[in-house]
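User: Hi! I have a protein structure encoded as tokens and I'd like to know what sequence might fold into it. I'm fairly new to this, so please keep things simple.
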């Protein structure tokens, strides 16, 4: 195992909160922001379920975590830009709460754990904001909808609530070594889940049973949070892009599409594998699988820093068209089919998205108003920088709701052979998704989950 693969060594260090804060401050200054200002952020609040004394599920605000590495609710932070001082405010010890929940993290423990300069309790936030000698002449940078009512910025000359959020959204695109290590770890744990589902599929009675297999693998490896709701789709359910019911019985369907990934310390994995439940492809499902695997292989090979993602997405469509022509589903000229955007009927979503603290991570600059059907749902537009992590997830689907309007459109139906298409509805959908780190000269695949046909079949058949 190389140094890059040894995420455990990297994760022995601290989450690089100060490095992130410095990067965000530099962005703000480059955009004309006050170089003597202060950044202010709040953690997510703890809250109870409505009409209930049970705590609601907690999910830390990603922007707060990015500048702190702290997953505690009801906390605050400030970053003084000119002195590069990062201060964390954590809840004080409440004796009544200790009876039920045990001792919370102390100030001294937080100083040891987090990459910050100082730790205080939350009762000190307002006095800290008012105490700076220069604050009356400087700017506070915050996110307008994430400021508690009791917080006061009266001492600051200017209040800037528009720049901080886009600054963090942009900075989050390029990952630090520590962030990449977290994504590696999440990928490795999720891979165990995917392999265990492959092993269990032939005897499974329902999608829910296989969802349980995946979750068990994650939870017993201490990855108790999922990056998103798993998609466990047998047969034609795989034609629904975000199928989340996961409750159908398994009885004779050929393929299972599993889109599932855990998160580790707020960092996501996002992996999709499609495989034959019994270990045997049909002629139709194998043809589609081969096409999607080739789409993914060529698109990944095209990646390096500075590549135009829009062009890689277009490449995926060209390979899909070639594959669907070979299978007889499409007919006519490949160039004319591409021009008519007929392939969008079978591959309607974008090739991928940035990955980080969010599954669909920030900074992609999509254009959902694009009139071009082929690019409308592309979540990333423009060139990819080194240090970004992007998913490559081509797919081909046989969704009646999407395809049937194409069969009624004279421009489109001339390119589709309905008699051949009829044999493919039962395939449902095939998607294959890996998480790719962009490097200066190429890429690194962070996803070790098996996907080559012979390897997958071997696992399924035991």
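Assistant: Happy to help. Inverse folding works backwards from shape to sequence: for each of the 462 positions I chose a residue that suits the local structure. Here it is:
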């Amino acid at each position: 195992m190389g140094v890059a693969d040894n995420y455990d060594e990297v994760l022995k260090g601290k989450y690089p909160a100060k490095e992130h804060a410095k990067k965000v401050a530099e962005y703000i200054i480059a955009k004309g922001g006050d170089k003597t200002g202060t950044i202010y952020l709040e953690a997510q609040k703890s809250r109870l379920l409505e009409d209930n004394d049970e705590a609601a599920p907690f999910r830390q605000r990603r922007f707060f975590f990015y500048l702190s590495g702290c997953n505690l609710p009801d906390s605050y932070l400030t970053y003084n830009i000119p002195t590069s001082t990062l201060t964390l405010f954590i809840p004080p010890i409440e004796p009544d709460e200790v009876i039920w929940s045990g001792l919370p993290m102390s100030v001294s423990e937080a100083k040891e754990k987090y990459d910050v300069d100082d730790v205080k309790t939350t009762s000190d936030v307002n006095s800290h904001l008012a105490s700076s000698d220069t604050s009356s002449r400087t700017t506070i940078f915050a996110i307008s909808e994430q400021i508690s009512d009791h917080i006061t910025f009266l001492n600051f000359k200017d209040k800037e609530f528009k720049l901080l959020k886009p600054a963090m959204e942009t900075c989050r695109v390029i990952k630090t070594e520590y962030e990449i290590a977290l994504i590696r770890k999440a990928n490795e744990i999720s891979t165990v889940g995917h392999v265990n589902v492959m092993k269990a599929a032939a005897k499974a009675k329902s999608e829910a049973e296989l969802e349980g297999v995946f979750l068990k693998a994650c939870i017993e490896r201490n990855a108790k949070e999922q990056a998103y709701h798993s998609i466990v789709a047998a047969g034609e359910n795989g034609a629904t892009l975000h199928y989340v019911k996961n409750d159908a019985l398994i009885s004779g369907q050929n393929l299972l599409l599993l889109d599932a990934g855990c998160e580790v310390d707020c960092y996501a994995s996002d992996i999709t594998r499609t495989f034959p439940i019994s270990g045997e492809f049909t002629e139709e499902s194998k043809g589609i699988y081969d096409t999607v695997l080739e789409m993914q292989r060529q698109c990944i090979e095209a990646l390096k820093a500075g590549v135009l993602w829009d062009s890689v997405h277009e490449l995926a469509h060209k390979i899909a068209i070639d594959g669907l022509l070979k299978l007889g589903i499409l007919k006519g000229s490949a160039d004319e089919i591409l021009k008519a955007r007929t392939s969008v009927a079978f591959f309607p979503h974008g090739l991928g998205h940035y990955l980080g603290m969010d599954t669909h991570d920030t900074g992609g600059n999509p254009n959902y108003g694009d009139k071009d059907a082929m690019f409308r749902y592309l979540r990333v537009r423009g060139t990819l920088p080194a240090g970004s992590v992007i998913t490559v997830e081509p797919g081909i689907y046989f969704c009646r709701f999407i395809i049937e309007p194409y069969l009624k459109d004279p421009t489109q139906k001339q390119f589709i052979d309905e008699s051949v298409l009829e044999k493919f509805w039962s395939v449902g959908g095939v998607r294959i998704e890996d998480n790719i780190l962009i490097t200066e000269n190429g890429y690194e695949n962070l996803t070790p989950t098996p996907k080559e046909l012979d390897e997958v079949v071997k696992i399924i058949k035991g």
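A useful reference point when you look it over: The chain has a mean pLDDT of 96. Feel free to ask if any position seems puzzling.
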